[in-house]
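Folding Problem: From Residues to Backbone Shape
Fields: amino acid sequence; protein backbone structure tokens
RECORD BEGINS BELOW THIS LINE
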Amino acid sequence: MIWGGAEKRRFVRANFPCKIAIHIPSRHTLSTHTENIGVGGIRVIIGEKSEIFSTVGLEIFLGEEPIICNGRVVWVVENKSNYQEDFFSYDTGMEFVDIKEEDRAAIKNFVEAIVLSK
């Protein structure tokens, strides 16, 4: 995704592909990885379009034990494949909701460690 606008995030994000499971209520579970992660949320690329403001269950694997919380879809950008006709992926931003403070602190420490190591 090429973005030319102003950055509006409140929290620093780290470009890191951690494993994540997205539980879409009454449908199914997607397994993918994050494009980036921050204290406030994540960005993922998935093969189906999510409804803006819908809530999904998240399992984020920063270590062996997952962080379990909910995410609210706040934006979706459709990307058409250059190689396969009628194939789309969806760049999706989610903010964390219903997350424990100790899990938010773990994400903060994780992101800071990645950012400082670069």
Q: What stands out?
A: The first helix runs from residue 101 to 117. The mean pLDDT is 86. The beta strands are 13-14, 19-24, 28-38, 41-46, 55-61, 67-80, 88-97. The chain has one helix and seven strands.
